[in-house]
Specification:
This protein has 689 residues and is α/β, with parallel strands linked by helices. 42% of the residues lie in helices and 17% in strands. The longest helix is centred in the last third of the chain and has 22 residues. It starts with a strand and ends with a helix. The structure holds zinc ion (2 copies). The site of one zinc ion (ZN) has 4 residues, from loops.
């Protein structure tokens, strides 16, 4: 098995994206690779780090010029210069190295090179290989290469040149492209063609900042004939709401999207993208061969990206929204001459498979590490080699993600489950993949993601404001796809089963007419317009469970109570598989008095909701056994989850049942993946190179 530790940091963009994409590529390329991603700032500082990030984002938003100056002086790492800060980060790093025992450490952040060099400064041999992935293009801060690295990965030949000029050995530099998502390797069917008179121009507008002016910007773009505009607003759901009227007025020409996982496909389908000069954004546009019109540049860190777009003739840097519209207009003129020029340049430098090529390089470094090491050095414990490191070496104790995941793997006995979890596809705070990491690292065995799915006709009166808080029709397909994909990763990485579900919100004007119904382990979409009985029938037809959510009176700051199912038990008790006996901190005693089959769930919306009631099941760890256990409602218990205590209580018996290659149900999910084209095309890439 190859063990890889990827170090990243949440400052600026690009570092986390690079880390995530390389992890994805590694997991696709080598089934036996164990990849850990860690943010040393997060591990070392937590609260302070959140504050610093907020300050960073605030400075970027309100005083970009000022930030430009700060950037020059401090680069990305505001307090690394502080001596005490350094010791704290070293401690975290040493602990992480002990826990993960990596063959190769990969850094996507400039400061970590110096940190590693400081740990192994006595010429003692590092027990792992070290790869630095430089996320800047062309203007590269010296912090990136001041410390030694076995390999430097850069995005293009020009950036490689910059490094060489600065004295970095040529052999150690590999220009493989920026690690964009491996999904860029999957070409969509309807690629954009050279724009000709009267033909539609597909424009993608990515809104990150400058939210106030974007309404006007959209109007300007729609004033251009033949423009078909897709706007992504990310997590700004209020903004989506604000723009909804325009979308209705320009139905067919203006498409509004919230946060989306489909950026690769959107970029590849578009003639041009409008957005800010973020490192990842620019590199994604290049990978998709999509010309870019930059509408905002943060001085300092983003200047290099904007410079790259302009000088390499891959698009334009606009001066204000008027100028953006003018550039778009120009694209349609001269039978698409300008567009063809930009596209031609992009074809030359585009590297959509960069993440896979980098993954191959890293796996090669792992082999090199294993060959180099003498047995007594393996597994490597930096503290044993280094006096300096010894002072900061800590015993590996609980607390870190990797460690808890290890505990989770050892765990047997009752399965720790949560069947009511929201992601940011509706009103949850975390993305699906963040939910997976959150539960996976805490040793959970099974969760079901159940985003709100509401009948649009029922969203009457004041409830209409909830619209952006529920799944929409244009995202439902993506929702199923993304959960299926993340379920594969969750199983491989954490041994965590992730089921797809929906929370059917059937809200009437009063609590007596309102019901929330969970559909658990769904294979396909069920219309939100069906009545409750019909919905339950469809859920059962897919082999899923129908569960009554918060069925009785409860204390909640904002949610309305939902008593319809409870009031109509005669009708519904025979068909409902289980009733929530607990929802987050609420206990429903009447459910136990009536001896109804029960479950306990968090109704998870944000991290603090993890500390709440959960279900323990004593059955085999696969979806069918779990569902059967709930239906029979034998060997079911509830527990009030308070963090490590639960994990500790269940880790005693070390006799984990043999894990099947893939659990039932997931096998079907895994079979679906090649249909998206990912596996097949990835394979081709590997053979071709
Ligand atoms: Zn609910
Ligand atoms: Zn809910």
């Amino acid at each position: 098995m190859k063990k890889i530790l990827i170090l990243t940091a949440g400052f600026g963009d690009g570092h986390n994206a690079a880390a995530r994409n390389v992890r994805e590529a590694l997991e696709l390329t080598a089934a036996d690779a164990e990849v850990t991603v860690a943010d040393l700032y997060e591990l070392s500082y937590k609260r302070l780090n959140t504050l610093a990030k907020k300050a960073y984002l605030g400075a970027v938003r309100y005083a970009p010029q000022l930030w430009g100056g700060i950037f020059k002086v401090l680069d990305h790492a505001p307090w690394l210069a502080d001596g005490r800060g350094l010791v704290r980060m070293q401690k975290s790093l040493v602990q992480l190295l002990e826990e993960t025992q990596p063959d190769c450490v990969v850094s996507t952040y400039p400061a970590y090179g110096s940190l590693i060099q400081a740990l192994y400064h006595d010429h003692c041999e590092r027990p792992f290989r070290f790869v630095t992935i430089i996320t800047d293009a062309r203007s590269v801060h010296s912090l990136w290469y001041r410390a030694r690295s076995d390999r430097f990965v850069v995005c293009d030949a020009a950036t490689a040149e910059v490094l060489q000029q600065a004295g970095v050995e040529k052999e150690s530099i590999a220009a493989l492209g920026f690690p964009v998502s491996p999904l860029f390797g999957v070409t969509p069917k309807d690629l954009p063609e050279r724009p000709r008179l009267g033909q539609m121009l597909r424009v993608l507008y990515v809104i990150n900042t400058g939210k106030k002016k974007c309404g006007k910007a959209i109007d300007r773009l729609l004033a251009i004939p033949n423009v078909e505009l897709t706007v992504t607003v990310g997590r700004y759901s209020e903004l989506k709401e604000k723009l909804a009227r325009r979308a209705r007025e320009h139905a067919g020409r203006l498409h509004l999207l919230g946060w989306t996982n489909q950026m690769p496909q959107l970029l590849m389908r578009s003639h041009v993208v409008i957005g800010k000069a973020g490192g990842a954004a620019v590199q994604e546009a290049i990978a998709a061969k999509c010309p870019m019109i930059i509408n905002q540049v943060i001085p300092g860190q983003e200047a290099g990206n904007a410079h790259l777009i302009r000088t390499a003739n891959l698009g334009a840097v606009a001066d204000g929204n008027k100028d953006v519209a003018r550039w778009v207009e120009r694209l349609a003129e001269d039978s698409g001459e300008l567009w063809a020029q930009w596209r031609g340049q992009l074809e030359k430098i585009s590297r959509p498979d960069a993440a896979l090529r980098i993954a191959n390089l890293i796996l090669g470094e792992c082999d090199a590490a294993n060959k180099l090491l003498r047995p007594e050095q393996f597994p490597g414990r930096p503290a044993a080699h280094n006096g300096n490191a010894h002072e900061v070496a800590l015993p590996a104790r609980n607390g870190s993600m990797a460690m808890r995941a290890q505990i989770a793997r050892k765990k047997t006995g009752a399965l720790l489950c949560d069947f009511h979890v929201h992601s940011n596809y509706s009103d949850g705070k975390l993305t699906v993949s963040e939910v997976v990491d959150f539960y996976g690292s805490r040793g959970f065995d099974c969760i079901c993601i159940t985003d709100h799915w509401a009948d649009p006709r029922r969203l009457i009166g004041k409830l209409a404001r909830l619209t952006p808080l529920t799944l929409s029709y244009d995202q439902i397909e993506e929702y199923f796809e993304v959960i299926t994909r993340e379920a594969r990763r969750a199983w491989r990485r954490y041994g965590l089963l992730v089921l797809t579900g929906l929370e059917f919100n059937k809200d009437g004007p009063t609590k007596r007419t309102s019901a929330h119904l969970l559909g658990i382990d769904l294979k396909t979409l069920i219309s939100p317009r069906l009545d409750l009985m019909e919905t339950i029938t469809r859920i059962h037809a897919q082999g899923g469970l129908a569960v009554a959510a918060h069925p009785h009176l409860m204390k909640s700051e904002w949610a309305k109570e939902t008593l319809y199912l409870w009031d109509n038990q005669d009708k519904f008790a025979p068909v409902i598989d289980a009733w929530e006996i607990a929802n987050r901190n609420n206990l429903f005693t009447p459910v136990s008095r009536r001896r109804l089959p029960f479950l306990a769930n968090s109704d998870f919306h944000k991290p603090k909701h993890i500390f709440s009631w959960k279900t323990l099941l004593n059955c085999e760890k696969n979806p069918e056994a779990i569902k059967e256990c709930i239906r029979r409602n034998e060997n079911v218990a509830i527990t009030l989850y308070r963090g490590d205590a639960v994990t500790a209580a269940t880790e005693i018996v070390p006799n984990r049942q043999k894990q099947p290659s893939l659990p039932l149900g997931l096998e079907a999910a895994a079979r679906q993946l090649p249909e998206t084209g990912v596996s097949d095309s990835l394979l081709l890439h590997r053979v071709a190179r």
